[in-house]
Amino acid sequence: MARDISFASFNLYNLQVPETATRLGATMFSEDTYQRRLQWASTILRQMDADVIAFQELWSAQALRDLFMIAGLDSQYELHFIGDRWYDIAVAAAVRRPWRVRETMLHKSFPDGFRLIKRRHGAAGADEERTDDDIDVQINLFSRTVMQLTLTRDEPDVPDVEALCAHLKSKLSTTLDPVEARNDALKPHRAALGAALSTIRRTAEAAALRMIVTNLTKATERAVVVVGDLNDGAHSNTVSLLSAQPPFRRHRKSRVGGASDIGLYPVTFLQALSDFQDVSYTHLYQGVREQLDHVLVSEQFYDHSRNRVWSYKEQQVWNDHLDEGGPTGPERATSDHGIVCARFLWDPADRQP
């Protein structure tokens, strides 16, 4: 049906035009490998057939334009970038007509008022055993700019949708500063300390993104979707913080789940409720399979909400290409992430008494 809508997340794995460096000293794409990567990705795009696609790990606007041209989809989609040029990996988006973008907002800085601080209270020495004081996290920027798109179409009864395209800090260990890296006592622990730094940043980013979502949804009926590589599993603290853990309706007569003003529903949970088992994954590392790439939706997309506009149909995951062998970096002809697409049917709730 024309008013159905679908959202997808596609990590492009450092896609860059040929013979152009990403980071200093990095291996560049050859023309042959670049074309093989585009051919593979174009096949996924055509199979996916999604209305809104959030991309991550893009280095060049031209690379995404080349991808849609090779896929034969350049006339159907409008592409959106964080700017004309950028210095690192970035998110981007593609929106298929008749949906269009009415407004774009870029979030590099955290929202005003963001704080992760817990001060010590009481007299000096009086509460040295306390474990929840003296925390002050000095992070106020997203590692990768979040792109917010206001999606609209020229039909008065179809509401706008706020789509937030995100790529949170990865689990990879952050490189310690030179002072700490040269410290002999810390050298055996650099990986653990670096992973802790990455986790703290990813958590801070999730909290900042949650503030943005809450500002959009609280006391409104605005439809909101978060799409992207969140670099954490569906049951992680990161995703739980971002989703605000809305209630799910588990049986027909239950009154739970009728509304959730600020909550987001992870589509992987919606799919798990209809599957016999949870088999979805979008990343494979050292034998561990996880879904790191997510679609989170507000109550306007939840079947049992009295504020429903669309109902959930399915989540599809393309992950057959994932393996831990073979080439990496620009020599790899596929992404190192699975691709996720969530589909919703136009199905406004009947609010008549």
Please give the structural blueprint.
Layout: E1 5-15, H1 31-48, E2 52-58, H2 61-71, E3 77-81, E4 90-96, E5 100-109, E6 117-118, E7 135-136, E8 141-152, E9 161-167, H3 178-181, H4 190-217, E10 223-229, H5 237-243, E11 265-266, H6 267-272, E12 283-285, E13 288-290, E14 293-297, E15 310-318, E16 339-346
List keywords for this structure.
353 residues; alpha+beta; Deoxyribonuclease I, Chain A; six-stranded mixed beta sheet
Question: What can you tell me about this protein's structure?
Answer:
- The protein has 353 residues and is an alpha+beta fold.
- The chain has one domain: Endonuclease/exonuclease/phosphatase (Deoxyribonuclease I, Chain A), CATH 3.60.10.
- 21% of the residues lie in helices and 28% in strands.
- It contains 6 helices and 16 strands.
- It has helices at 31-48, 61-71, 178-181, 190-217, 237-243, 267-272, and strands spanning 5-15, 52-58, 77-81, 90-96, 100-109, 117-118, 135-136, 141-152, 161-167, 223-229, 265-266, 283-285, 288-290, 293-297, 310-318, 339-346.
- The strands form 4 sheets. Strands 3-4-2-1-16-15 form a 6-stranded mixed β-sheet.
- The longest helix has 28 residues, at 190-217.
- It is globular, with a radius of gyration of 21 Å.
- The two termini are 27 Å apart.
- The mean pLDDT is 88.
**What percentage of the residues does DSSP assign to strands (E)?**
25-35%
Q: What do we call the CATH homologous superfamily?
A: Endonuclease/exonuclease/phosphatase
Could you tell me the radius of gyration in angstroms?
21 Å
Say how many strands there are: 16
Walk across the major sheet and give the strand order.
Answer: 3-4-2-1-16-15
Can you give the helix content as a percent range? 10-25%
Structural class: alpha+beta
Q: How many structural domains in the coordinates? A: 1
Q: What shape does the CA trace take?
A: globular
Instruction: Name the CATH class.
Output: Alpha Beta
Give the overall average pLDDT.
88
Low-confidence stretches: none
Counted by DSSP, the helix tally is: 6
The run of helices and strands is: EHEHEEEEEEEHHEHEHEEEEE
Q: Which architecture does the CATH hierarchy give at level 2?
A: 4-Layer Sandwich
- Cα end-to-end separation: 27 Å
State the CATH topology. Deoxyribonuclease I, Chain A
Q: Major β-sheet, in short?
A: 6 strands, mixed
